[in-house]
Amino acid sequence: MHLHAYDSATQWTWGAAIAISSAIARDLRERPRARLLLSGGKTPGPVYAALSKSPLPWENVDVALVDERWLLPEDPDSNARLVRETLIQNKAQQARLETITRAGRPFDEAVSTANLHARQPAGVVVLGMGDDGHTASLFPGMQDLDDALSAPTPYVGVDASGCPGAQRWSRRISLTPAGLAPAHTRLLLIRGERKRALLEQLLRSDDVREYPARIALTVPGADLHVHWCP
Rounded to the nearest 5 degrees, what angle is found at the Cα of 103, between the Cα atoms of 100 and 104? Predict the structure, then answer.
């Protein structure tokens, strides 16, 4: 793990955006298209907005989601809406945004579509971490968590009923460890002393059932780059 600590939110925003942009640029030097997976939540919006100003050939970038709530892409609480309103702006308007859900598409079909898109593995994955230690839509104590963690597919449908971190959105589609493994760049964006303390707890054990965010560290493959500020 590599920790990138910043003194201010502004430094954190631009430092993380530059790191993501550089990883995408490396991808595009080696292949015709780059694939980027982004998380939702309250934390990463400013980073995505800064990233949208990066002078990349965005028409060659596919942007997809780490996870999604069972909501339409236009819903204000969907991760697709967050990404569209923060990243798919400015220079990044030309990027191709893949949404998981769609009007008239049943839940199982949405999961299948996510897995179909994931046949082209993502090179860069941006993760978040909740106060309960969840990442993507993998929550501590979630029903069938073991099945999701061991799934051979990049995405699974999950039921997070009873998990406080899921709030009122219990039905979700989530990236799995199998979907994370191929990425050559893993980033975790966190802010605040509470998240820094939680990160220290993650480092004391490799039990992903206690804190599923540990998959960012335990899944074989790329090193994890953590970007943090107070």
Answer: 110
- Give the pLDDT confidence score for residue 38 in this predicted structure: 98
Q: Label residues 141-170 b or e (16+ Cβ within 10 Å = b).
A: ebeebeebbebeebbbbbebeebebbeeeb
DSSP H stretches of helix in 31-68: 45-51
Report helix, strand or coil for 3: strand
Instruction: Look up the CATH number of the domain holding residue 52.
Output: 3.40.50.1360
What is the Cα–Cα distance from 210 to 110, expressed in whole angstroms?
28
DSSP letter at 209 equals T
In the chain, how many domains are there?
1
pTM value surpassing 0.70: yes
- Which residues of the chain are under the pLDDT cut of 50? none
Q: Nearest to residue 124, comparing CAs of 66, 80, 83?
A: 66
Contact 125, 37 (CB under 8 A): yes
pLDDT at 219: 97
